């Protein structure tokens, strides 16, 4: 029997399914019953890979049930799928066409089947995301307060700002509680020994970077999006730039790096050395972000305590 690749386009109401190479199109409601029917249909086919896009949580029940039944489900980055669709000339977009593209992507790219996060990691990720949303709202309201001249509106915004600050404080306490759980306590304590690394960066890395400590320094930098890529063509040598990666991590890593410049002698020494070489300060900060991430990754891999390492330039 030939390999069977399955693409599932997940929407709030239904699951559009494409089987490749047969080209069969199926549809099921996105409910518990519909997922059971899909699993019953796929089971006898022994699919090689079942691919769906990340959809902000709509895919969680489906991927959990697929993996519980021993089926190789994978959640992939929607941007990568759209880039693949453009590369093969598929510009139109419908649910059924998306399912067909996903099955084609599964056959051509064969993304690896990764271990699913347990309930504790999912809860930590949910609270990290919730805190980020509250912080974004708080910043927006503070900017709005600066632009508002009406006294009664200012009072209303100030009350909302105070409420959001209270929610952020409560969420920080919740993160402390989660990081104190046995699944996270050892790693969280280890990482927060590093000068400049605090609760928020630790929680963000544990929530959004399960590969931490399992890959090498180049791979971890690429996953977060702080690895420089060449831009060369013929005799032209362009400036190297970072690209892609997990946008949820970079802003938090940036703030931790800025703090590290004050309290972490290793990061400060690297910053001063690169600035003295005439590097632009934005480039230097990115290099320091990468160095801090590499230190964290190495400590997680070796389970070693913090000690100031000597970093290469």
Automatic annotation (TrEMBL):
Residues 189-271 form the Transposase IS116/IS110/IS902 C-terminal domain. Residues 6-147 form the Transposase IS110-like N-terminal domain. Pfam families: DEDD_Tnp_IS110, Transposase_20. Signal peptide: none annotated. InterPro entries: Transp_IS110-like_N (IPR002525), Transpos_IS110 (IPR047650), Transposase_20 (IPR003346). This is IS110 family transposase. The lineage of its organism: Bacteria, Thermotogati, Deinococcota, Deinococci, Deinococcales.
């Amino acid at each position: 029997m030939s390999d069977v690749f399955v693409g599932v386009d997940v929407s709030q109401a239904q699951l559009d399914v494409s089987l490749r190479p047969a080209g069969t199109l199926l549809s099921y409601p996105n409910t518990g019953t519909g997922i059971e029917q899909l699993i019953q249909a796929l089971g006898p086919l022994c699919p090689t890979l079942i691919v769906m896009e990340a959809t902000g949580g709509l895919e969680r029940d489906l991927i959990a049930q697929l993996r519980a039944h021993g089926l190789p489900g994978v959640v992939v980055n929607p941007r990568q799928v759209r880039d693949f669709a453009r590369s093969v000339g598929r510009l139109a977009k419908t649910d059924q066409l998306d399912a067909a593209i996903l099955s084609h992507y599964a056959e051509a790219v064969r993304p690896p089947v990764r271990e699913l996060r347990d309930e504790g990691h999912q809860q930590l990720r949910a609270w990290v995301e919730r805190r980020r949303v509250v912080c974004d709202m708080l910043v927006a309201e503070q900017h709005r307060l600066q632009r508002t001249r009406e006294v009664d509106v200012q009072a209303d915004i100030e009350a909302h700002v105070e409420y959001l600050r209270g929610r952020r404080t409560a969420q920080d306490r919740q993160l402390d509680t989660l990081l104190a759980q046995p699944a996270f306590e050892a790693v969280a304590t280890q990482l927060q020994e590093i000068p400049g690394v605090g609760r928020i960066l630790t929680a963000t890395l544990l929530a959004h970077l399960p590969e931490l400590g399992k890959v090498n320094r180049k791979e971890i930098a690429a996953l977060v999006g702080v690895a420089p890529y060449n831009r060369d063509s013929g005799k032209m040598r362009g400036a190297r730039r970072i690209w892609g990666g997990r946008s949820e991590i970079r802003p938090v890593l940036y703030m931790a790096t800025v703090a590290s410049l004050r309290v972490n002698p290793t990061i400060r020494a690297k910053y001063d050395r690169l600035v003295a070489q005439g590097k632009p300060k934005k480039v230097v900060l990115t290099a320091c972000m990468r160095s801090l991430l590499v230190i964290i990754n190495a400590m997680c891999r070796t389970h070693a305590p913090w000690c100031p390492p000597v970093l290469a330039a």
